[in-house]
Structure formats: structure tokens, C-alpha cells
Amino acid sequence: MRLHSLELTAFGPYPKRETVDFDVLGADGLFLLHGDTGAGKTTLLDAVAFALFGKVPGARGDVKRLRCDYADVDERTVVVLELTVQGRRFRISRSPEYTRPKKRGEGFTKEQARVSLTWISGWQGDGHIRIDEVADVVEGLLGMNAEQFFQVVLLPQGEFARFLRADTAEREKLLEKLFGTQRFLDVENWFRTRRTAAGQALEQHRQAGRALVQRVSEAAGEEAPEVGDEEWLSSVLKRLGETAGEAEAVALSTSAAREAAEGALASVRVEADRVRRVREARRALASCDEAEPRRLEWVAERDAARRAAPVVPSRDATVRSERSLASARSLEEAAFSVLVGYEGTDLRGDSERLREEAGGLNQLAAEAEQQKRDSARVVALTASRARLERQVAAVDPTLPDQVVAARAALEAWLPDDEHHLAGDAVLVTAAPRLGGGFTVAWAGDARAYFWDGTALTRLTTDQTVAEYFRSRGQAPTPRMEHVVTNSVRMSKPASIGLAHAPRGAGRLVLTTDGVHGRLTPEGFRLIVAGAGDPGTTSALLVATALRAGGTDNATALVVDVA
């Protein structure tokens, strides 16, 4: 850094403008500032510091008191310094903040601090007028801030006098303050901390080494030395290698003995298995001898059943005819209940629609006539069965009793739930009613459902023992689910239940328990809602029930209602 000139106006003790030409003073390379006390020597150095950093060193650092009290009111306090740093010559003009009397009126007004930096040579660029920008440029060129500049380049006058009068301890603190040696203390402390940490880490490694030596000595069965060096570790590894070789030889011999023992054990197991199978065969033979009398009884019973086989078709035909007759009677009652009630409001329109449905009613009438013919056939078959039974009795008087005994044995062999259901007939049918909608007639555990496009509604109630107990708040057993309280086979006339399907478009589904008894409610609903046309839906319901293990009558009828 080289100073060229300094101008100060109303600064410190100088009320007027003063100029110092450092180029002339320093022509010989060295100059001296001297004068009486209070002549303003320190003020010149303060002016240089103020121009550079906006502050002065030492106790005079209050920049608000740098204006000369004797200066004219209209005279501005300003310091102009021209210097060269790193080959760049520039001029700094700086004014402190101070107060002055108002030009108009009474009181004082405040003059704000100002600064400007102008490049003269060595650099092509714009100047700066912001205080922070000028500070950044000066500190960047000088390589130090104000505190560092006051410690290295411009020693405060008061601090130096204090240094001369101080003792050794105070002088040390003062030198540390003047020359900023705190960083060296920080380095010393850093090395001290590192040394302590390294010593602790070394001690930890030593302890870990001693622990490893102790563990190795225990594993090798050796006495732990005071210092586990490399020679001791090599000797331990050598002894362990010799021991491992001996152990490997023993392992080979032991493995051969083990393989021989396993071979002998396999042979013994084969012989033991043969002995076991011979003993099981002897026990099975003894069981066969014990079961021989029962087998002869079963053969005799089978032969008797075969002799009675010609009678069974006739009896089955009679039973089917009786069921058809009861079903026809129930259908007649349901049709009558449909025809006697009228719930509509448009009689003329309903009449036109009923004409279109007359064909369906004619078909029902034809079915009723067919059922009458079936009833006559039942009477004829009953008489034929009686005649055949008399003929069979004439041939062999004991044959009817044998048939009855065979049927009783067959029914006793069936599970309980199949015994209750054997021969039971259930009924479910539907017919259109006047005014729109359908009326459903049912008996037993057959069911009817109606799907309106969003919800599946069950129209019927099971006529079973389980439902009887539920209606009275009692929990039924699983076997009660398949025991009906009303069917067409019972001696008393069947009680036909009636239910009305909702008006409007939808899907009517009629099923036996062979279908809904095997499907979950959610699975049943999904098939009805999304299977497609009625034929596909009914086929899918029956197929799903059979795949689920259904063995009962699996019947499903699906009708789309417009």
C-alpha cells in the first residue's frame, strides 16, 4: 500500500481544508511526522484510517465526534485519500455522521455518513458509493479488516504507551491483543486435544489387544503372556495347526465308522419292515376269518334284495305320481289365490294385458289336466302294486318281509340328514297377478329371490325345524337345517306359503336347497347379478352347487321380468 495524498476538511482539530502530499514527503523513501503535543499528528493517521475503514483506532473510535467544533457551519466534514494497492490507484472520499444547526429555523439536523470510491488507474470499472461495497473492496485489496490493520500497520498511540508501562503478564495479554495471537493459542489447544484423544485411543487399542490375547490363550489352552507379541502368536498358531491335523485324521476314521454303522442300520430297518408287514398280514388274515360269518349274512341279504328288485320300480312310480298330484293341487290353490284378488287401478289396461297372458293360463290348465291323469295313473299303479305283492307272496310268503327288512337296513345305513330328506318333496312356483308383479307359492325349504338391479331380496321363509326354533328365539343345531316341517310327502295336506314379488323390472330366481344350501350368500348374489342371460345364470348356479359337494336335488329357475 502506498499513500499519494490526503485532504481533510473540518476534521479533528483542523477547521479548514488541509492537504498532505505523501509523494513529495516520501520521495526519499522515508518521512517523519513531528510536532508539539496537540499539533494534530495523530489526527492525520486517524484521517487515513477513517478514509479506509470509516473508523479510527483506540479510544477515539466514536466517529460521530470526528467533526471539528470550530469549523464553519456551512463547511462539510470530509476526508479524501488517494492511494495505490496491488497496482490499482483509486481515491476514497468519506464523511462521518454528525449534526449541524439548521439553515432555516432553530434546532439541529443530521448529516448522514457518505463514502465514494473512484478508480484512477490500474482498473477499468465503475466506482462505488455504498458503504458496504467500499468496505468489501478495501478489505479485499488490503487483505485485512480494520482490527487487523490497527494491530499490524497502525498501532494505536495509547495502546503502545500502555505496553511500555505494563508488567510481563499484562504485556503478554497486550501483545496478544495487538498482534492477534489468539489463533496460535487455538492451534496449541487443538494439538493438546488431539494428543489427549490419541492417547485415549491408544490405551483403548492396548486394552483391546490384551483382551484378544486373553481370548486366544483361553481358546488355545495356553497361559496368557504379559505381552502378546507376534512370536507368541506364531507359536500358538503352529500348535493349533498340528492339533487340527490330528483332529482331521480322527474325523476321517470316525466318518468311515459312521458310514459302516449307517449301512448296518439300514439293513436292520429293512428286515424290521419285513417283519412288520408279515405281522400286519397275519392280523388282517385273522380279521378276515372273524368277519366271514358277517360276510355270509351280507351276501344273503344282498341276494334277497336282488329278488325284490322288480317291485321297486312300481313303488317308485307310485310315489312320483302321488307327488305330482299333490304338486298339482298346490298349484291350483296358488292360481286361485292369484285370480281372486285385483290390486290394479287401470282395469281396461289390465284386461288387455291379461288377454296376452291368457296363453300362460291355458298352459296351466293343461298341466292341471295332466296332473288329473297322473292321479288316475297313481290309483292304477297302487292296484297293480297290491296285485304284484299278492303274486310275490304266493310265490314266496317270506319275500315281502325280506323287502321290508332290506329297506329298513338301507335307511338305517343312511346319515340322519339324508334319512329325514329321503323322498321329501318341496314346491316353489310363481304366477303373474292382476295389477302387475308376481305371486310366489312355496312349501318346504325351497326359496324365491328377486334382484332389482341393486339388491337381492329373499321372498320366502324356510319351513324347517331350524326356522321353527329361530322364530322362538332358540338356537338350532346344524342337522335341523335340512329337516322340513312342511312337504308334499307328509300325511297331512301341505301348507302352501304365498309371497308377492315387487312390481317393476328385475330378475326372479327360484331354487331348491340343493343350490342355495351349498352357496354362500355373497357368491349366490354375484352369480345372480352378473352371470348374463337367465339360462346361463341357472346353469352356473347348479354347476357351482355341484362343485361345492352338493348331492341333493339341485334345481334353479331364473326369469327376467320386464
Outline the secondary-structure elements.
Layout: E1 2-11, E2 14-21, H1 22-25, H2 41-53, E3 78-85, E4 88-95, E5 98-101, E6 108-111, E7 114-121, H3 131-142, H4 146-152, H5 157-165, H6 168-179, H7 182-220, H8 230-307, H9 311-340, H10 347-356, H11 358-395, H12 399-413, H13 416-421, E8 427-432, E9 438-443, E10 447-451, E11 456-458, H14 465-471, E12 497-500, E13 506-511, H15 513-516, H16 521-530, H17 534-547, E14 556-561
Antiparallel strand pairs: 1-2, 1-3, 3-4, 4-7, 5-6, 8-9, 9-12, 10-11, 10-13, 13-14
Key features of this structure:
562 residues; 3 domains; 5-stranded antiparallel sheet
CATH architecture of the largest domain: 4-Layer Sandwich
- Determine the mean pLDDT: 77
Radius of gyration: 62 Å
Strand order of the largest sheet: 2-1-3-4-7
What does this protein look like?
The structure is a single chain. This protein is an alpha+beta fold. The chain has helices at 22-25, 41-53, 131-142, 146-152, 157-165, 168-179, 182-220, 230-307, 311-340, 347-356, 358-395, 399-413, 416-421, 465-471, 513-516, 521-530, 534-547, and strands at 2-11, 14-21, 78-85, 88-95, 98-101, 108-111, 114-121, 427-432, 438-443, 447-451, 456-458, 497-500, 506-511, 556-561. Mean pLDDT is 77; it is low at 335-343 and 413-425. Strands 2-1-3-4-7 form a five-stranded antiparallel β-sheet. Strands 11-10-13-14 form a four-stranded antiparallel β-sheet. It has a three-stranded antiparallel β-sheet with strand order 8-9-12, covered by helices on one side. α5 (157-165) runs antiparallel to α6, α9 (311-340) runs antiparallel to α11 and α16 packs antiparallel against α17 (534-547). A hairpin with a 2-residue loop joins β1 (2-11) and β2. The protein has 17 helices and 14 strands. The two termini are 108 Å apart.
